[in-house]
Amino acid sequence: MSRAGARLGRAPAIALAAVAALAACAAPQEPAPLHAAFDVTREGLTALLEPLPESVRTRILAEPAIFLELMAKTRSQPADLLVLVDKQHALAEDYRPPDLIDIDHRGLTVTRASMQLRAFVLPDLAAMTAAARLAGTDVTVSSTYRSFDRQAFLFDYNVERLGPEQASTLVARPGHSQHQLGTAIDFGSIDLGYGETREGQWMLANAWRFGFSLSYPQGLQDITGYQYEPWHFRYLGRAGAELAHRFFGGVQQLFLLHYRHLMPALLAGSAPAGNRASAS
Ligand SMILES: [Zn+2]
Predict the structure, then answer these.
(1) Protein residues with C-beta less than 5 angstroms from the ion ligand 1
(2) Spacing, Cα 257 to ligand 1 middle (Å)
């Protein structure tokens, strides 16, 4: 008797719990994060994108899940792959990539021996070369890694030849060259004519699919600091190059400039400070 009574006594509590659970389901829910890798809602993402140009914001908000998926993928790459190196942002004089390898005897088309790249660039460079050959052209590697000292020599040489003003639009100062990263490549003839060749045309249309991004596009000297260089590409990895191509209008500079703020903000979560529960 007492056992039955106890069971009966428990029943209202169970019923109440069930009602409470139902009520919780019926209450307005927190907006769901857009992607499992980041604690960000559509509203939060919209706020984060505020500093970006409107055309970029519109593209991202049209496909936020794809944008966040690509951003998540960049996190598995080496940290310095997407570091900004331009006229304002320099590498240290002693920065030297840890994994440079010679690219000789790997089935690539090269214009001279003993050029070096970071090892992880090779698979996509090989894949891009194979695709170009299938399309009836080639990928000709003409210049790759340059040390700080080598860049200093090149810059001084060009200042002597052209004067400081013109030299600075053509050649990076030491520490400011993407070539010191070991992920930048000059292709083909290294002149404006390259953009008109079959190979150059193929590269301009397809390199991003293999992780290579054109660093200094035509008509963007005000943004990049450099004249059009149809031969100079930087390896960003496939996710990075797709982000630059798909959402940033192919303007690598714009992508890298904003990436360095966007990624930490995404990782920190993006709800306005007042609405966030205290995490500490
Ligand atoms: Zn170059």
Answers:
(1) 186, 232
(2) 19
Domain that holds residue 183: 77-246
Compute the CA torsion angle 126, 211, 250, 259 (nearest 10 deg): -160
The whole-angstrom distance between residue 43's C-alpha and the CA centroid of its chain comes to 23
Average pLDDT over residues 5-33: 56
Name the pLDDT band for 168 (thresholds 50, 70, 90).
Answer: confident
CA angle 130-113-78, nearest 5°? Answer: 60
Task: Tell me, in angstroms, the distance from the centre of ligand 1 to residue 193's CA.
Answer: 15
**pLDDT surpasses 80 at 197:** yes
Query: Distance, CA 130 to ligand 1 centroid (Å)?
Result: 22
What is the CATH number for 144? 3.30.1380.10
Ligand 1 center to residue 179 CA distance, Å? 6
Digit-coded pLDDT (tens) for 201-215: 999 999 999 999 999
**What's 35's DSSP letter?**
B
Number of domains present in the structure of the chain: 1
Residue 192 alpha carbon to ligand 1 centre in Å: 12
